[in-house]
């Protein structure tokens, strides 16, 4: 029997796909529609595999596979980026958007083929649909990509395959198949871009802050892989192991990451970073303000743990308590978006590195803080943290930061896009910081009418839409760079569709919703 919430989620994704391609219809639209149809069918095969325990790896429980919503994110991002850069006349990034779209389609198709291949008996209709979709995608790629671009797409696919085999084995129950597609697909693309730009550094293309992001992401991922393999053979909880962890982190950071970044930006990374952070008085004020908010967040953690009595060790923080952090990140990101987006870009990268490094310390029980972090963060776990890693706070940071990182600055005259595209950097703030928070708080406290098959309420969703519209009005008042050009109907439709997706999806909404809202705004 078909799952009604999954059907509703799929319908919302189909509507978003059609909305996007109604605005930017071209040859890649046929590929995206074909991919969406076959992903819809394959999604149910993945769900059946997960229910029967037939999947090769252990995926996160309590959620469907999420293959359809995840499969469409990277292709749609590439397509809308291509259109924006084409209209701006930036050929290099127009081609880059085509590569992103083609890579996303091929990686999603690969995941679908795996599900079909291990399903017994072999689903004939799904195989036919997958073959048709694959033929359309490959035919379009053949007539759209140059030889070097085809090689680049295949490189990303190869990296994705190896990363998937390694990380899904080492980190059971941390991802659904859809979340693995998004996270590992993104990391694979970043790694390939870093290798490509390192080999072609003499071309002088790229902003130092983009290189900083690439090196930081690849550096922390490689650091985690290194210690995960190392601690298979030794106990990570001893003082000797902990000292070795800190020493090797310093060696890898100073001996590999820093020289790599120096080669890309052609200057001392530490001096460049310090000069960048304290370049203007506005940046100093923002850094002081963000330090205060970070201290406030730590205060919330300590206060909630102090409230936890020894008799209630299984007590978990309430939904409203966890949403405190959403309010804090909104207060963090909005001033950065208004006054200095480049500083926010770099600060978000630094925060991501710190968050992942602290998670390594907690996961490996590195002394002296590993056990303390385990105790402090256990209070804020929810049903999505079923694996060995605690990822919800990292997903929150990613959801707020990805629209800032993925904003096509080179294709935006005067640093902003026209129409609804001017709200692209605010996608995380609107979808997660405001929409998801308001829906959760009002839905859990006043909601009575539940959406069919879910715990989410009609009142929560409607309040979230209303709150995001108010937030857009406030952005128009306080951010003079935003000019919507009468695209209010499109903004309302975008916010409404993404809020409905929040009500029905079982995937990590902190990661999925901002990306879909960004896609809609860029279209």
TrEMBL record:
Keywords in alphabetical order: Endoplasmic reticulum, Kinase, Membrane, Transferase, Transmembrane, Transmembrane helix
Enzyme Commission identifier(s): 2.7.1.108
Molecular function (Gene Ontology), one example: dolichol kinase activity
Domain of life: Eukaryota
Gene Ontology BP annotations: dolichyl monophosphate biosynthetic process
EC class of the enzyme, as a word: transferase
Location in the cell: Endoplasmic reticulum membrane
Similarity comment: family membership: Belongs to the polyprenol kinase family.
Protein name per Swiss-Prot or TrEMBL: dolichol kinase
Organism phylogeny: Eukaryota, Metazoa, Chordata, Craniata, Vertebrata
């Amino acid at each position: 029997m078909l799952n009604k919430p999954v059907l509703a989620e799929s319908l919302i994704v189909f509507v978003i796909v059609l909305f996007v391609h109604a605005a930017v219809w071209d040859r890649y639209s046929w590929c995206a529609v074909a991919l969406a149809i076959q992903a819809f069918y394959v999604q149910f095969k993945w769900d059946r595999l997960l229910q029967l325990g037939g999947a090769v790896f252990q995926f996160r429980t309590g959620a469907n596979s999420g293959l359809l919503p995840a499969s469409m994110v990277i292709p749609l991002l590439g397509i809308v980026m291509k259109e924006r850069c084409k209209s701006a006349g930036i050929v290099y990034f127009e081609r880059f958007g085509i590569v992103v779209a083609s890579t996303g389609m091929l990686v999603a198709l690969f995941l679908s083929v795996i599900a079909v291949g291990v399903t017994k008996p072999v689903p004939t209709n799904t195989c036919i649909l997958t073959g048709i979709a694959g033929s359309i995608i490959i035919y379009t790629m053949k007539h759209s990509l140059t030889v070097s671009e085809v090689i680049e797409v295949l490189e990303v696919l190869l990296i994705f395959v190896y990363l998937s085999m390694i990380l899904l084995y080492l980190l059971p129950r941390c991802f659904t198949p859809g979340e693995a597609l998004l996270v590992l697909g993104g990391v694979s693309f970043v790694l390939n871009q870093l290798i490509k730009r390192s080999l072609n550094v003499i071309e002088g293309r790229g902003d130092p802050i983009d290189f900083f992001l690439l090196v930081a992401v690849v550096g922390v991922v490689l650091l985690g892989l290194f210690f995960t393999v190392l601690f298979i053979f030794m106990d990570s909880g001893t003082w000797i192991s902990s000292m070795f962890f800190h020493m090797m982190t310093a060696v890898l950071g100073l001996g590999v990451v820093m020289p790599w970044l120096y080669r890309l930006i052609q200057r001392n990374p530490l001096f460049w970073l310090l000069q960048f952070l304290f370049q203007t008085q506005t940046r100093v004020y923002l850094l002081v303000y963000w330090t205060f908010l970070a201290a406030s967040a730590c205060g919330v953690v300590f206060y909630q743990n102090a409230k936890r009595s020894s008799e209630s060790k299984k007590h978990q923080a309430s939904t409203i308590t966890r949403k405190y952090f959403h309010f804090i990140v909104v207060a963090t990101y909005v001033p950065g978006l208004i006054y200095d987006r480049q500083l926010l870009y770099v600060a978000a990268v630094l925060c991501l590195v710190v968050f992942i490094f602290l998670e390594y310390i907690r996961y490996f029980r590195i002394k002296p803080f590993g056990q303390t972090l385990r105790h402090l963060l256990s209070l804020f776990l929810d049903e999505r943290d079923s694996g060995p890693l605690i990822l919800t706070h990292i997903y929150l940071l990613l959801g707020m930061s990805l629209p800032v990182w993925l904003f096509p600055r080179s294709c935006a005259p005067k640093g902003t896009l026209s129409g609804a595209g001017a709200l692209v950097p605010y996608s995380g703030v609107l979808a997660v910081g405001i929409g998801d928070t308001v829906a959760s708080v009002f839905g859990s406290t006043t909601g009575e009418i539940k959406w069919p098959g879910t715990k989410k309420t009609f009142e929560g969703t409607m309040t979230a839409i209303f709150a995001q519209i108010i937030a857009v009005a406030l952005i128009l008042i306080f951010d003079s760079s935003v000019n919507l050009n009468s695209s209010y109907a499109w903004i309302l439709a975008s916010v409404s569709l993404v809020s409905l997706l929040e009500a029905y999806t079982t995937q990590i909404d902190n990661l999925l919703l901002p990306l879909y809202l960004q896609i809609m705004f860029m279209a």
